[in-house]
UniProtKB/TrEMBL annotation:
Domain UBC core: start-end pairs: 22-181
One family name in Pfam for this protein: UQ_con
Protein name: UBC core domain-containing protein
PROSITE patterns (UniProt xref): UBC_2
């Protein structure tokens, strides 16, 4: 029986409130741990409407997928941290052996066989998503037929990678173009969603010049205004084309 403690409170109310506070603290801790990794070319923002959804954009600068820009969601199970592995789901689905061609979900089973809250963190799943594009190589997995049949999501991509590398590269080239064309598409009203807008020379030309010349814009901003050391993290799909920012202005 739920024991009443006065003022409309019950033992279950107190337990629920404690659980919610613990969950919020845990999720804030996870995001701080992600930020501390200083991952290059990846931008992640927690959703305003849900603690368990993070918005992300990834810019790939090396490897077969060099030049692709990808939107994704980090979907964290409600029972976190004692739960299954968080999911990475891509909005515009790229052609990749480890990504389900129908759902856009990244197959994480090559890196995580189980989730241990005392060992694993959300940033590791984001880092894995980064590595499967920047350092992609299935060579170690190809001899293991059982692994391929059970764990790979896109069998067409696996077959091309094994039997026709030129055909695989052609499909990658096509998916880079298709995903980049869809980068302005998003289907959420969440105020923290990352969106793209047109490049404004009056606002961004000087910043672009500094980025292209190798100036450390982050350090320069800290020196110019030590009371506001953070920067907006502006980036471009290609020179002079788009600006990235969150709907909340972060």
């Amino acid at each position: 029986m739920d024991k009443h403690l006065g003022n409309g409170l019950t033992e279950n109310n107190i337990l629920d409130n404690f659980t919610n506070v613990f969950t919020e603290y845990q999720m804030m801790r996870e995001f701080v741990l992600y930020r501390n990794q200083n991952m290059c070319h990846i931008y992640v923002v927690p959703s305003h409407s849900s603690t368990f959804v993070w918005f992300g954009v990834m810019f790939v600068h090396k490897g077969l997928y060099r030049g692709i820009v990808l939107r994704f969601h980090v979907l964290i199970p409600n029972a976190f941290p004692t739960t299954e592995i968080p999911k990475i789901v891509f909005d515009a689905i790229p052609f990749h052996p480890l990504i389900n061609p129908l759902s856009g979900e990244l197959n994480t089973s090559l890196a995580f066989t189980e989730w241990k809250s005392s060992v694993n963190n959300v940033w590791e799943v984001i880092d894995y998503a980064n590595r499967v594009f920047n350092c992609f190589d299935l060579t170690d997995c190809l001899p293991n037929e059982s692994l391929l049949s059970c764990d790979m999501f896109n069998t067409q991509a696996v077959d091309l990678y094994r039997e026709n590398m030129d055909g695989f590269r052609l499909k990658v080239t096509q998916t880079i173009r298709q995903c980049n064309q869809k980068i302005n598409e998003y289907n959420t009203d969440d105020s923290n969603a990352i969106i793209f807008g047109p490049f404004d020379a009056d606002i961004h030309q000087e910043l672009q010049r500094k980025l292209l010349s190798g100036v450390n814009v982050h350090e320069e901003s800290q020196l110019a205004d030590p009371t506001h050391p953070s920067v907006t993290g502006l980036s471009w799909v290609q020179s002079g084309s788009t600006q990235m920012f969150s709907k909340s202005g972060a």
